[in-house]
Amino acid sequence: MIAKKILRPRTLVAILAVLLIMIAAYAYAAANEVPETGAGDGSNTISGYTITNVQYSLDDADPSLISAVSFDINPTDNASPVREVKVQLVTGGDWFDCTEAGTSATCTNIGVSVFTANQFRVVAVQ
């Protein structure tokens, strides 16, 4: 009796319809073509820069604040001259823009307290 309920014509038609839909979907997905692209993955050495002659300037009105920092930045190995430089003086703190002139960089309008400054971190790109 259970076999008769499973093999009713409606059930059989429903199963066949589902199978046909699955076959059509598979055939459609198998026909997709993706053109070749220029994407890729790889790695190379980051050569970096050498930082020297770091000099801090104190604010005239409040000498407990660092108003500016300047330093020399020279490419190591085959790195190109620096194009953009930022510094961070407090771990997790704000990043400050710098102006580059040849192998020198100056960062102004900093306003970080000398008591909270705990690092000198430089990020530079060519």
If you had to describe this structure to a student in words, what would you say it looks like?
This protein has 2 domains: 1-33; 49-125, Sandwich (Immunoglobulin-like). It is 21% helix and 37% strand. It is built from 2 helices and 7 strands, in the order ααβββββββ.
Query: Whole-number average pLDDT?
Result: 80
Note the overall shape: elongated
Number of domains: 2
The number of helical runs is 2
Task: Give the strand tally.
Answer: 7
SSE run: HHEEEEEEE
Query: Can you name the CATH architecture of the largest domain?
Result: Sandwich
Strand order of the largest sheet: 1-2-6-5
Helix content: 10-25%
Q: Which blocks of ≥5 consecutive residues have pLDDT under 50?
A: none
Radius of gyration computed on alpha carbons: 33 Å
The CA-CA distance between the termini, in Å, is: 80 Å
Structural class: alpha+beta
Properties at a glance:
2 domains; Immunoglobulin-like; 21% helix; 126 residues; single chain; elongated; 7 strands; four-stranded antiparallel β-sheet; three-stranded antiparallel β-sheet; alpha+beta
